């Protein structure tokens, strides 16, 4: 498939926003239970504000994927059957919860944790809807696996907790080490499941053939022409156009950028208690996740390419 950067940014930005809000609510829950000391309210206000900004940027990015942005409201029309429509409903709901959560802490409201709990539910619903847009497409074997949802959740939470660590290093230093440990754990878990998906997908074989694509039953069918000489939608939108060598480089780039380098930076940051290192880890991980999400889309082999993208 041809990766659309609008969707790449939508899924990575909103995923980080969701993970960040989950981390903040987790901190407040532990503080309410007396497990940790209550941090400054500014941690929650700043963290929620960052979550809203990231989610809003993802929402804005999604509009660039539309042929007619003025008709975007129609995307929710099929919410009963479409995961995309459900995502379009869940994202604004999540943003409203994150904004309300930050406002509740700003005014010192006692019901902030209740709003946070609703926000976590909205985050979970958004993770499910976003992942199922791709996991429900059974004809794209690379996506039609439970690992798709697992990876969306783990990678979003990992990046969110890394951001929460950076926020804590600035506004609540006593929490930075614990959050960094959580971020490292989530990063390792995300790496393990992403590598598992890579290994699974490497073993996949197309279920369709040139014979089934063309309807010709002969044993030795060779496609000599696509049937047209100019460019077409089928050639532009269903194939990324990169060489196998380029795809391999991108794979190793995202494995290092999304998992390896941030993990090392976080470990060093725990010892040094360095705000700069935690920020660098968050930035590196996000850039790595952009590469990972690009690869996620490029890796999917649409069956139509058997007919349109191959000619001897």
UniProtKB/TrEMBL annotation:
<feature type="transmembrane region" description="Helical">
    <location>
        <begin position="113"/>
        <end position="137"/>
    </location>
</feature>
<dbReference type="Pfam" id="PF04976">
    <property type="entry name" value="DmsC"/>
</dbReference>
<dbReference type="GO" id="GO:0005886">
    <property type="term" value="C:plasma membrane"/>
</dbReference>
<feature type="transmembrane region" description="Helical">
    <location>
        <begin position="88"/>
        <end position="107"/>
    </location>
</feature>
<dbReference type="GO" id="GO:0019645">
    <property type="term" value="P:anaerobic electron transport chain"/>
</dbReference>
<feature type="transmembrane region" description="Helical">
    <location>
        <begin position="275"/>
        <end position="296"/>
    </location>
</feature>
<feature type="transmembrane region" description="Helical">
    <location>
        <begin position="43"/>
        <end position="67"/>
    </location>
</feature>
<keyword id="KW-1133">Transmembrane helix</keyword>
<feature type="transmembrane region" description="Helical">
    <location>
        <begin position="149"/>
        <end position="171"/>
    </location>
</feature>
<dbReference type="GO" id="GO:0009390">
    <property type="term" value="C:dimethyl sulfoxide reductase complex"/>
</dbReference>
<keyword id="KW-0812">Transmembrane</keyword>
<dbReference type="GO" id="GO:0009389">
    <property type="term" value="F:dimethyl sulfoxide reductase activity"/>
</dbReference>
<keyword id="KW-0472">Membrane</keyword>
<dbReference type="InterPro" id="IPR007059">
    <property type="entry name" value="DmsC"/>
</dbReference>
<feature type="transmembrane region" description="Helical">
    <location>
        <begin position="252"/>
        <end position="269"/>
    </location>
</feature>
<protein>
    <submittedName>
        <fullName>DMSO reductase anchor subunit (DmsC)</fullName>
    </submittedName>
</protein>
<feature type="transmembrane region" description="Helical">
    <location>
        <begin position="177"/>
        <end position="197"/>
    </location>
</feature>
């Amino acid at each position: 498939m041809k990766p659309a950067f609008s969707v790449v940014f939508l899924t990575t930005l909103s995923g980080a926003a969701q993970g960040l809000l989950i981390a903040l609510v987790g901190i407040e829950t532990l503080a309410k239970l007396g497990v940790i000391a209550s941090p400054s309210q500014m941690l929650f206000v700043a963290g929620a504000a960052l979550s809203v900004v990231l989610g809003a940027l993802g929402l804005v990015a999604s509009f660039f994927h539309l042929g007619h942005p003025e008709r975007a409201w129609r995307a929710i029309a099929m919410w009963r059957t479409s995961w995309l429509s459900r995502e379009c409903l869940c994202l604004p709901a999540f943003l409203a919860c994150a904004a309300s959560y930050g406002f509740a802490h700003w005014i010192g409201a006692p019901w902030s944790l209740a709003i946070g709990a609703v926000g976590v539910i909205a985050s979970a619903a958004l993770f499910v809807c976003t992942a199922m847009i791709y996991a429900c497409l059974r004809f794209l074997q690379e996506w039609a696996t439970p690992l798709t949802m697992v990876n969306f959740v783990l990678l979003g939470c990992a990046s969110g907790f890394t951001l929460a660590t950076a926020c804590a290093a600035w506004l609540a230093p006593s929490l930075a080490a614990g959050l960094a440990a959580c971020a490292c754990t989530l990063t390792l878990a995300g790496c393990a499941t992403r590598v598992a998906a890579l290994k699974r997908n490497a073993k996949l074989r197309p279920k369709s053939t040139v014979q089934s694509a063309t309807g010709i039953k002969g044993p030795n069918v060779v496609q000599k022409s696509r049937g047209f000489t100019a460019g077409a939608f089928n050639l532009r939108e269903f194939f990324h156009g990169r060489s196998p060598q380029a795809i391999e480089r991108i794979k190793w780039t995202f494995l290092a950028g999304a998992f390896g380098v941030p993990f090392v930076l976080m470990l060093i940051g725990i010892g040094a208690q360095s705000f700069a290192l935690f920020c660098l880890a968050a930035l590196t991980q996000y850039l790595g996740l952009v590469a990972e999400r690009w690869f996620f889309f490029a890796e999917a082999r649409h069956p139509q390419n058997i007919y349109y993208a191959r000619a001897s």
